Amino acid sequence: MSFSGVVVAAGQGQRAGPGEPKAWRRLGARPLVRWSVEGLLSAGAREVVVVVAPNRLAHADEALFGLAGWTAVAGGKSRAESVQAGLAALTCGADEPVLIHDAARPFVARAHVDRLLAALAQADGAVPALPVADTLKRGDGVIAETVSRDQLWRAQTPQAFRLGRLMAAYLAWPTGAEPTDDAGVVERDGGRVAMVPGDPMLMKLTYPEDFLMAEQLARASRIMRTGFGVDAHRFGPGDAVWLGGVRIAHDRGLVGHSDADAGLHALTDAVLGAIAAGDIGQHFPPSDPRWKGASSDQFLTHAVSLVAAQGGRMISADLTLICERPKIGPHRDALRARIAELLGLPIDRVSVKATTTEGMGFTGREEGLMAQAVVNVDTPA
Predict the structure, then answer these.
(1) Full-prediction pTM beyond 0.90?
(2) Same fold, 4-206 and 222-380
(3) Closest C-alpha among 250, 178, 214, 235 to residue 369
(4) Handedness of CA 17, 18, 22, 28 (dihedral sign)
(5) What is d(CA 103, CA 32) in angstroms, rounded to the nearest whole number?
């Protein structure tokens, strides 16, 4: 089922201790907000609106660099105002499901989303909830009474609603009152909100000790995978070669079914290898006329999209070009920039090197050139 998402990341998170607002702190080397956005996108979100403090819009571009399908908007003074700003920025129709999620709950997964969407078919809203397990006390320093925990639940996020239903409920919410969650807004408007099984992994990071625990979970929930790719093409007639997505003037061209970009072909195979998704020939067979003369950048972006579909992300890339000519040094920066763009990486995570075989072999005789690539990919365990 198609759905959209709103990730609320506009708060200050003062209880998390000194430092940046918690949505922008690092968890497993990634900003906390990125975990939630990646989680919803990997679960199939059509679009995700990230609501941030007005002075954090530029931070969102940096924190979410390389992800597709998200936009950032400025939030309001309260969580309710921020949620409404996010809802207003969505492009979906009134009947489409929308998941409202707190950036401080980083471990959202497809299983959570699937349960919510299934429950939404029979209700106005759906929330993940856990039964209260601890004994509850009321008091101020001294216990005044023990509170029964029967039928008490801890509500989590994401919470799911139809867009139009949630927006109507917010319009009916009394001015000056502050809801603690979106389910409460729909409840007050007479809506029926279903509870689905919650998950301790949907923990909310509030205090400094929460981040320490989350770091342990983050390390256990992700693995690093490495892929290797190699490609070679012979020289033929022409006045330029394509390497790493860059056109380089040369007295000959490269022969191949596509544009014969050995650099991007090696990178594509490396990415596919990292996630055990076959090789470039399986996805783009040279027997298919659609790829005759095709630009190889679409091969690489396809491989990267498969990584994202598995909930993974690119970490780094190292490309080595083996040839006597053309000389790679003058074009190294352009190659790194183009490859970084295609992989969705900062340029400082992309390496391009060149070497020769000292006149030996087919590259030494300048009959063709070769490329080798190594990539690192971070994916769910």
Answers:
(1) no
(2) no
(3) 235
(4) negative
(5) 7
Which token pair is 102? Answer: 């707190």
Which amino acid makes up residue 286? P
In the CATH hierarchy, which fold is given to the domain comprising 222-380?
60s Ribosomal Protein L30; Chain: A; (3.30.1330)
Cβ density class 160-172: b for 16+ within 10 Å, e for less: bbbbebbbebbee
Q: How many CB atoms lie within 10 A of CB 59?
A: 19
Amino acid at 316: S
DSSP state of 201: G
Closest to 99 in 3D by CA, of 28, 30, 181: 181
Please give the Cα distance from 290 to 292 (Å, whole number).
6
Do 7 and 50 touch, CB atoms closer than 8 A? yes
Nearest to 166 by CA among 201, 124, 135, 200: 124
Closest of 281, 263, 279 to residue 271, by C-alpha: 279
Helix, strand, coil share (%) of the chain residues, nearest 5: 35, 30, 35
Class of domain 4-206: alpha beta
Cα distances (angstroms) measured from residue 4 to each of 70, 113, 215, 279 = 10, 11, 28, 32
Backbone angles phi, psi at 138, to 5 degrees: -115, 135
pLDDT computed for residue 246 by the predictor: 97
pLDDT digit string (tens) for 362-378?
999 999 999 999 999 98
pLDDT, tens only, 329-338: 999 999 999 9
Give the separation between CA 99 and CA 48, rounded to whole angstroms. Answer: 9
